[in-house]
Amino acid sequence: MARSALLTLFLSSIAILVYLGYRALDLVPVSPIAEPEPIAVTDTEPVDRLPEFSLTNIDGEMQSIGSWPGKAMIVNFWATWCAPCLREIPLLVDYQRRYREDLALQVVGIAVDQIVPVKAFMNDMAMNYPVLIGQADAMDAAAAFDVDFFGLPFSVFTAPDGHVLGIHTGELHAVDLDNVVETLEELAENRIDIAGARARLARRR
User: CATH says 54-203 is which class?
Assistant: First the structure.
């Protein structure tokens, strides 16, 4: 019996040491939030314009995705349980602050989640942009962009007139958003048209 207890203690100690070793090598995420499955899309072309859909906002009221007319948009599908989603939120907060006036850029989060955890994360992360919330209906909203949607995060970029310029699957990084900003600036200055903006964003996928 004592021998069995000692063996259990020994194996537990080994497991803890292995875990700590992986943590030290940065192979085990610090956050307890599980990584989602990889994202994949087909070669299907997305819709031409931002589709109409409505979801619940943070106040519990139904709100249309068309509530921000005349603004270029980053529509970002995310969830509180998605680690890459949470990593990109501070970046989206920063770009919303920097470009909402000069570029009339509007970030809109679409949380595939429930309202209570979303409210808590919005407060904790000082999110400065609106969030619409849903579960199956939020997944349906993602599918409305005519791409096969398998995971999060998932972001859509639109022109001020509602044309869909590009879709990004996976975590956003500063280089991705810089490219969106530069594309929108060129579009605003008539240096490129919608087709040119789409081609520019597609080259950076």
Answer: alpha beta
